[in-house]
C-alpha cells in the first residue's frame, strides 16, 4: 500500500489527508508552472503555442491570454454567475 503524502495515494486511493493534498498540490503547481513557461510574447500578449485557443482550458491550464481565450474565459465566468 502507498504511503501518505504521495500523489499516488491521493489519486489512486482518493486519500484527502493534509499530506496527500499537499503532495498533489505541489505536483499540480509544478505542472502549471511548466506549461506557463512555454508561453511566448506576441505583441505584448502571452500566448501558448500549443493550446487549443478559444477554450477555458487554454486560459486556465495553459495561461494563454490571447483574445479568444480571454473571451471564452469571461463568457464561462458570466454563465456561472447568472
What does this structure look like?
The structure is a single chain. This protein has 82 residues and is mainly alpha-helical. The chain folds into two domains: 1-35, no CATH class; 38-82, no CATH class. It contains four helices and two strands. It has helices at residues 7-12, 18-37, 56-60, 67-81; strands spanning 40-42, 45-47. The protein has a two-stranded antiparallel ribbon. The longest helix is centred in the middle third of the chain and has 20 residues, at 18-37. It is elongated, with a radius of gyration of 16 Å.
Q: What's the order of the H and E elements?
A: HHEEHH
Measured by DSSP, the beta-strand proportion falls in 5-15%
Number of helices: 4
* Global structural class: mainly alpha
Note poorly predicted spans: none
Question: How are the elements arranged and paired?
Answer:
Layout (H helix, E strand, L loop, with lengths): L6 H6 L5 H20 L2 E3 L2 E3 L8 H5 L6 H15 L1
Amino acid at each position: 500500500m502507498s504511503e501518505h503524502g504521495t500523489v499516488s495515494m491521493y489519486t489512486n486511493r482518493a486519500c484527502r489527508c493534509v499530506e496527500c493534498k499537499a503532495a498533489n498540490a505541489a505536483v499540480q503547481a509544478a505542472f502549471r508552472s511548466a506549461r506557463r513557461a512555454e508561453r511566448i510574447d506576441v505583441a505584448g500578449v502571452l500566448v501558448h503555442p500549443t493550446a487549443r485557443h478559444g477554450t477555458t482550458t487554454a486560459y486556465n491550464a495553459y495561461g494563454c491570454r490571447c483574445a479568444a481565450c480571454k473571451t471564452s474565459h469571461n463568457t464561462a465566468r458570466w454563465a456561472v454567475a447568472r
